[in-house]
Prior knowledge:
alpha/beta; six-stranded mixed β-sheet; 14 strands
Amino acid sequence: MTAAPAKGERAHLAPLTRPARLRAGSRVAVVSPSGPVPAERLEPGLDLLRGWGLEPVVMPHVLDVHPELDYLAGADEARARDLQDAWCDPSVDAVICARGGYGVHRMVDLVDWAAMRAAGPKVFVGYSDITVLHEAFALRTGLATLHGPMVGTETFLKDPRTQESLRATLFEPETVMTLGLDDARALVPGRARGITYGGCVSLLAADLATPHARTSARGGLLVIEDTTEDPYGIDRILTQLLRAGAFDGVAGVVCGSWAGCGPYAQVRAVLADRLGRLGVPVVEELGFGHGPTGLTIPLGVPAVLDAPADGSPATLTVEVPALV
């Protein structure tokens, strides 16, 4: 058993418990913890899951829209209840989000995380606003999750590589252990090993100083992306995280897409300026998040970041399959 860190010492990130892979016939609950999803977007996504041999289970409030705050998929309590009921149902093997948007910060503390932990490991998939739940699963239950596409999103519905990345991770995770598109390159060259964590960087900043927020990045490989943030907004977000010490001890940084964030040359300059001072390898454009292709990235597992100085493609290689 690992000894508790001394007072003032920050613990290293440790590998998290991985859930079991899916098989034909596995039951997959679909939830909407954030924004509402139109039925015409949800149904094609469910059909894709059925085509993989999975049995989707649509939770009761997935298609809800809050009567006054129409950016929410129904009441906070209902969204929290759907997630908890799905997770605690022993017949459910995985929980996949329908879409992101905004709203998880409103419902995350309404979930009984002790009950979730007691229900044991299951596959959990999502990105964007779902970053808040990735952090909650990691810090409150000790479970690894998948930063991956959601069933009611355009990228999942239209991009074959996005679909295949998730399918392979769910069923044959040993076949997708080296991750990265051909455009992935070193922003700061080097090689690093650590435990993957992160998600949408604005959500990581919004989590700062909340009661169950992460207090250490030591030994972590930070995985970040975002959408519709101007370059100065990304600068502000990264500066806030840097000033708060949220990246202290991080082993490396893996950047995905920055869709709708302005000219990429400006975004790249911000990333180089803010992340370059960490003195660790940084990779750009690995190929996950809100872009036209969204690779599935396991969170909570040991991985190696390889950012070659010669300009050849950079990669993130997980050292164990995402699912057991």
